[in-house]
């Protein structure tokens, strides 16, 4: 089996009828680039940088950020690396609480909201990203964007940081692509407007499902309701694909949904052509992509979109996967 997997690493993530799919890796630590490269990832589609904070007692310095990002981009040998800025708060708490007495941390001061209100936290990270970009293809992505104002503020801060670096004669690159995560229903509803101001979009189905279905992604009592295959979530994804096409802004999906074979087929059928999954899931998802035609995926998606509940969608997808192997 390991031999077959090794062979697979050389082969492209291409459907049986020749449609190339970008298959990238989600990582949390620089050392995971080894597994990503070994499994033939097309790049890093999501680098969850908040793990720099979660894994250490000390607050990371600009140099810590810079070293981590440089290590990742060098290890990827020219392949794109999407660095997501800090997504702290809610389910990703560090050692020190960043906001106190929040009754609903998931709806509170988390992610980009927290970064924009703590510039001592955010600035060193943005500086480090622009500095590390001289070593390869780095792209920056802002999480949990909900309003246009947040996106503009984050972009403006990136520009200000670039000017500081220029004034100080520090080597950096400022022309890097800027993208946003689509993980709040408001972002989907307003996506045509957001698309005018970003270079790429990435759907975070973990949070998109949480906020669409009003289900805490970490709450065991309602875990049965937490399904990215819920028809409501699927309709939002379908709408994102439509806007990505009409606005010509590339779209990828980096939530856990992409690493589930049946749901991955459904995403391809809906028109998604870029997936980002944990390195361990790359071989299985690549094998799934290679075993099916896009025409088949489109038929699957068409049928799935007529179903009324996540359970029905998943049962249907399970049957489709069983027929492939
Ligand atoms: C998501 O929300 O789908 C996502 C990819 O980000 P995270 O799981 O880190 O919140
Ligand atoms: Mg998220």
From TrEMBL:
<feature type="binding site">
    <location>
        <position position="48"/>
    </location>
    <ligand>
        <name>phosphoenolpyruvate</name>
    </ligand>
</feature>
<dbReference type="GO" id="GO:0009401">
    <property type="term" value="P:phosphoenolpyruvate-dependent sugar phosphotransferase system"/>
</dbReference>
<keyword id="KW-0479">Metal-binding</keyword>
<keyword id="KW-0813">Transport</keyword>
<keyword id="KW-0762">Sugar transport</keyword>
<comment type="function">
    <text>General (non sugar-specific) component of the phosphoenolpyruvate-dependent sugar phosphotransferase system (sugar PTS). This major carbohydrate active-transport system catalyzes the phosphorylation of incoming sugar substrates concomitantly with their translocation across the cell membrane. Enzyme I transfers the phosphoryl group from phosphoenolpyruvate (PEP) to the phosphoryl carrier protein (HPr).</text>
</comment>
<keyword id="KW-0598">Phosphotransferase system</keyword>
<feature type="domain" description="PEP-utilising enzyme C-terminal">
    <location>
        <begin position="3"/>
        <end position="292"/>
    </location>
</feature>
<feature type="binding site">
    <location>
        <position position="207"/>
    </location>
    <ligand>
        <name>Mg(2+)</name>
    </ligand>
</feature>
<keyword id="KW-0963">Cytoplasm</keyword>
<keyword id="KW-0808">Transferase</keyword>
<dbReference type="GO" id="GO:0005737">
    <property type="term" value="C:cytoplasm"/>
</dbReference>
<feature type="binding site">
    <location>
        <position position="183"/>
    </location>
    <ligand>
        <name>Mg(2+)</name>
    </ligand>
</feature>
<feature type="binding site">
    <location>
        <position position="84"/>
    </location>
    <ligand>
        <name>phosphoenolpyruvate</name>
    </ligand>
</feature>
<keyword id="KW-0670">Pyruvate</keyword>
<feature type="binding site">
    <location>
        <position position="217"/>
    </location>
    <ligand>
        <name>phosphoenolpyruvate</name>
    </ligand>
</feature>
<keyword id="KW-0418">Kinase</keyword>
<protein>
    <recommendedName>
        <fullName>Phosphoenolpyruvate-protein phosphotransferase</fullName>
        <ecNumber>2.7.3.9</ecNumber>
    </recommendedName>
</protein>
<feature type="binding site">
    <location>
        <begin position="206"/>
        <end position="207"/>
    </location>
    <ligand>
        <name>phosphoenolpyruvate</name>
    </ligand>
</feature>
<dbReference type="GO" id="GO:0016301">
    <property type="term" value="F:kinase activity"/>
</dbReference>
<comment type="similarity">
    <text>Belongs to the PEP-utilizing enzyme family.</text>
</comment>
<feature type="active site" description="Proton donor">
    <location>
        <position position="254"/>
    </location>
</feature>
<dbReference type="GO" id="GO:0008965">
    <property type="term" value="F:phosphoenolpyruvate-protein phosphotransferase activity"/>
</dbReference>
<keyword id="KW-0460">Magnesium</keyword>
<dbReference type="GO" id="GO:0046872">
    <property type="term" value="F:metal ion binding"/>
</dbReference>
């Amino acid at each position: 089996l390991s031999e077959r997997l090794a062979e697979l690493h050389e082969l492209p993530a291409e459907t049986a009828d020749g449609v190339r799919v970008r298959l990238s890796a989600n990582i949390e630590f620089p050392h995971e680039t080894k597994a990503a490269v070994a499994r033939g990832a097309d790049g890093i589609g999501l680098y969850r940088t908040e793990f720099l904070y979660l894994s250490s007692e000390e607050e990371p310095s600009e140099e810590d950020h810079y070293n981590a990002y440089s290590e990742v981009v060098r290890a990827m040998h020219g392949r794109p690396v999407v660095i997501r800025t800090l997504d702290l708060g809610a389910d990703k708490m560090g050692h020190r609480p960043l906001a106190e007495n929040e009754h609903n941390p998931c709806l509170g001061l988390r992610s980009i909201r927290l970064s924009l209100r703590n510039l001592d936290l955010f600035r060193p990270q943005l500086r480090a990203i622009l500095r590390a970009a001289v070593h390869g293809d780095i792209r920056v992505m802002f999480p949990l964007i909900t309003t246009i104002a947040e996106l503009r503020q984050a972009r403006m801060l990136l520009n200000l940081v670039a000017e500081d670096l220029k004034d100080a004669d520090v080597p950096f690159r400022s022309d890097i692509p800027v993208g946003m995560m689509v993980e709040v229903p408001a972002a989907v509803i307003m996506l045509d407007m957001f698309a005018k101001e970003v270079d790429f979009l990435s759907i975070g189905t973990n949070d998109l499902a949480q906020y669409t279905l009003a289900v805490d992604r970490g709450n065991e009592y309602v875990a049965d309701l937490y399904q990215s295959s819920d028809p409501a979530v699927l309709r939002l994804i379908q709408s994102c694909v439509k806007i990505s096409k009409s606005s010509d802004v590339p779209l990828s999906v980096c939530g856990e949904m992409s690493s589930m074979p049946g749901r991955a087929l459904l995403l391809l059928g809906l028109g998604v052509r870029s997936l980002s999954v944990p390195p361990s899931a790359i071989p299985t998802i690549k094998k799934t992509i290679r075993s099916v035609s896009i025409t088949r995926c489109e038929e699957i998606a068409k049928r799935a979109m007529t179903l009324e509940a996540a359970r029905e969608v998943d049962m249907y997808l399970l049957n489709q996967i069983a027929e492939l192997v």
